[in-house]
Amino acid sequence: MSDDRLAAYQDAAGLLSRMGYVARAEAAWTPPATLRRAGSVPAIITDAPPIVVGYAVAMVAEEPEAHLPDHSARAGRVPHGQRGGPPWAFWLDYNE
């Protein structure tokens, strides 16, 4: 399932990029300690709003319900000299 999820997140990140957002998929993103239950997880890192992230996953995944992120957390800062909102990570917790 994680390979399918990563592929869906990569495709969603590509769609978000084409929509003008900064986006990438990471195969092994580590959530903050307060939200960590399963160690590293596939995640979408983007400045897109949550509703747009859900839309992108729904548009590219064969079974969107199986991949829709249910958690999010800040994922750093905008690099100096670059535009865009603060990046957020979106992922699905395997243990829930």
Provide the descriptors you would attach to this structure in a database record.
96 residues, alpha+beta, four-stranded antiparallel beta sheet, 29% helix, 22% strand, globular
Task: Describe the structure concisely.
Strands 1-2-4-3 form a four-stranded antiparallel β-sheet. It is 29% helix and 22% strand. It has 96 residues and is an alpha+beta fold.
What does this structure look like?
- The mean pLDDT is 87.
- The longest helix has 17 residues, at 2-18.
- The protein has helices at residues 2-18, 50-60; strands at residues 23-29, 41-46, 71-74, 88-91.
- A four-stranded antiparallel β-sheet has the order 1-2-4-3.
- Helices cover 29% and strands 22% of the residues.
- By secondary structure, it is α+β, with helices and mostly antiparallel strands.
- The chain is built from two helices and four strands; from the N terminus they run αββαββ.
